[in-house]
Design brief:
The protein is mainly α. It has helices spanning about 1-30, 35-60, 65-85, 115-140, and strands spanning about 110, 115. About 70% of the residues lie in helices and about 5% in strands. A hairpin with a 2-residue loop joins strand 1 (about 110) and strand 2.
Amino acid sequence: MNKVRGEAALAAAWAVALVASLSVLFIGEVLGQMPCLLCWYQRAFMFPLAIVLGLGLWWRDARVGRYGVALALGGGAVALWHMGLYVGLVPEPIQPCTATGPSCTDENQLVLGIPIPLLSLIAFALVAGLSALSLKETRS
């Protein structure tokens, strides 16, 4: 019974990572909004999460959550820094992609009224928490 809950947590973490990865691909490739440098760094952590957690589910590797936690914490740290820049807690201006490119503070960088850096931070927090939960379930 505990193993099923651990697998369910891992499946939920994979689903969050997959939806986040597909969403940023849609925003970038379909909507044509070029990501900024910090968004690229976050993608570098999120894309492997979708693959690693998916393969862990496929191979029924109960310990793959370790990699989920590590990657999500790395991406979450970048997202937290990005969010600090966005709200002005970090005393540096947020950088646009190019000199004339979009900035994360632009109106068209909101999804359902929520800024993309905050969505990223939420996604990484969910993946880290669910991955950790899947590990806890395998220990008992």
